[in-house]
């Protein structure tokens, strides 16, 4: 009897160890064999837009890189400037089967000035597809030659595409730092905003380099500032914010970064699998061909680099919370 009583605890321990080992093995196998089913790639905007085009270009190539019979299904979930989609991905099960493409600038600004369910600093970042630097522009015949030329003016009108636009927030922070009083003149799109400057209805505007480049090349606009860590080689005389004495964090914090992410808590093994597949996909000739047809370019960063960009952006917006909250509150 004594022998029998002594065997039972050892049997229990053995069973517990075996069970733990089997759970660990099953988890490891599941992660090593990822993916085992279709992956949902969520887009926070309508079909046909820029983010949709990037997702549609990436999805079939990503499928090939992941291998197996996995489909990458693009799902459009518009609403609140991408917030609805971001909340959805953030709250999804962190198993790698729900990922998203995000507009960093707009989401960071919203997180700073509003109550949201997501926290960008906690998400698992998989990489950056593109960077579209913001630029400050004026009419070619306006007489303005530098950002400091706006200091001391009684009236400066900024041509905008709405107060919640990332470019408008960039302009608001810039003018706040320069001590420039301004008022917005809102328009429904880029062409209307630019026409306003050309006609002389407004004095200055901010927008993405890709969307405004054609107006600079044809002589309608002049670029006064380029928001990035370094000057644009094609425009070597145009300074970055830090070069005119503004804080270095706004060099890149407010730019349009198109980034890919997964829910917080996604395992390292799954993140690594997705990140590796994305890194190979952006070099795939089929993807490059699709991007070239979109007349845009890839500025890829890996997950760790993307995470640093995200943290910098959130800090940048947090540092200017009062300015951003006042701007968004007046919308």
UniProtKB/TrEMBL annotation:
Q: Which Gene3D superfamilies match?
A: Bordetella uptake gene, domain 1, Periplasmic binding protein-like II
The residue range of the signal peptide is 1-30
For this protein, the record's Pfam families field holds: TctC
Q: What keywords would UniProt list here?
A: Signal
Under InterPro entries, the record lists: BUG (IPR005064), Bug_dom1 (IPR042100)
The reply to whether Oxidoreductase figures as a keyword in the UniProt entry is: no
Q: Does the keyword Signal apply?
A: yes
Coiled coil (UniProt feature) = none
Instruction: Write out the similarity annotation.
Output: Belongs to the UPF0065 (bug) family.
Q: What is this protein called?
A: Uncharacterized protein
């Amino acid at each position: 009897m004594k022998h029998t009583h002594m065997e039972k605890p050892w049997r229990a321990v053995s069973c517990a160890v075996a069970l733990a080992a089997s759970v660990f093995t099953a988890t490891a196998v599941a992660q090593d064999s990822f993916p085992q089913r279709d992956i949902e790639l969520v887009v926070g905007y309508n079909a046909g837009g820029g983010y949709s085009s990037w997702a549609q270009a990436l999805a079939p190539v990503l499928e090939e890189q992941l291998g197996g019979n996995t489909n990458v299904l693009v799902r459009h979930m518009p609403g609140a400037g991408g917030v609805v989609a971001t909340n959805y991905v953030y709250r999804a099960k962190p198993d790698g089967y729900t990922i998203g493409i995000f507009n960093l600038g707009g989401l960071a600004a919203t997180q700073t000035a509003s109550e949201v369910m997501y926290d960008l600093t906690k998400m698992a970042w998989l990489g950056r597809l593109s960077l579209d630097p913001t630029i400050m522009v004026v009419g070619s015949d306006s007489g303005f030659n530098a950002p400091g030329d706006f200091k001391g003016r009684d009236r400066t009108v900024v041509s905008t595409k709405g107060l919640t636009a990332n470019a408008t927030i960039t302009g608001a922070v810039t003018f706040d730092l320069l001590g420039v009083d301004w008022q917005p003149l809102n328009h429904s799109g880029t062409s209307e905003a630019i026409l306003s400057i050309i006609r002389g209805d407004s004095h200055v505007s901010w927008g993405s380099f890709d969307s405004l480049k054609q107006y600079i090349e044809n002589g309608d606009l002049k670029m006064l500032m380029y928001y990035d860590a370094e000057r644009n080689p094609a425009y070597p005389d145009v300074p970055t914010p830090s070069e005119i004495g503004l804080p270095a964090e706004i060099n890149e914090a407010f730019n349009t970064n198109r980034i890919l992410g997964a829910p917080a808590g996604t395992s390292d093994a799954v993140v690594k699998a997705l990140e590796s597949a994305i890194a190979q996909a952006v070099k795939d000739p089929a993807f490059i061909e699709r991007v070239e047809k979109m007349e845009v370019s890839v500025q890829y960063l890996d997950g760790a680099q993307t995470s640093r960009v995200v943290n910098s952006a959130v800090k940048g917006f947090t540092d200017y919370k009062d300015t951003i909250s006042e701007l968004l509150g007046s919308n």
